[in-house]
TrEMBL record:
Positions of transmembrane segments: 21-37
Superkingdom of this protein's organism: Bacteria
Its membrane topology: Multi-pass membrane protein
Organism annotation: Humibacillus xanthopallidus
Keywords in alphabetical order: Membrane, Transmembrane, Transmembrane helix
GO cellular component, one term: endomembrane system
Subcellular location: Endomembrane system
InterPro entries to which the protein is assigned, alphabetical: DUF202
The name this protein goes by in its record: Uncharacterized protein DUF202
Length: 115
């Protein structure tokens, strides 16, 4: 079975991937908002707010990358080269969120709080 291909489809898939990631992070932040404040207090609220900020940043980056990709498919257009910093920032934030979530899980477990 062959997959459809054509001008602009790769850019659409990339845009959808960024949107899916932003929505997934927002859903995770909503879960943090429901679960963490009773267990961690203000730190739980802070983690949820950081998750929402990260989600908004991912949506912004995704929208910009989608617009740049669409512009680069026009005849005579050049491919934009400025996206490397976003990848590094997103990877750093992902690592920070992972470490923070691990520390929060350990704190919750040591307090004896079950979810």
């Amino acid at each position: 079975m062959s997959q459809p291909s054509g001008p602009g489809l790769a850019e659409e898939r990339t845009g959808f991937a960024w949107r899916r990631t932003a929505v997934s992070v927002a859903v995770g932040a909503l879960l943090c908002l429901k679960i963490l404040p009773p267990l961690l207090g203000p730190a739980g609220w802070a983690l949820a707010v950081l998750g929402f900020c990260w989600s908004a940043d991912l949506a912004r980056i995704g929208r910009r990358r989608h617009v740049e990709a669409r512009a680069s498919t026009r005849p005579g257009a050049s491919v934009p080269l400025g996206g490397g910093g976003n990848v590094v920032r997103t990877a750093a934030v992902t690592c920070a969120v992972g470490v923070t979530a691990t520390v929060a899980a350990v704190v919750i477990a040591m307090r004896g709080g079950g979810v």
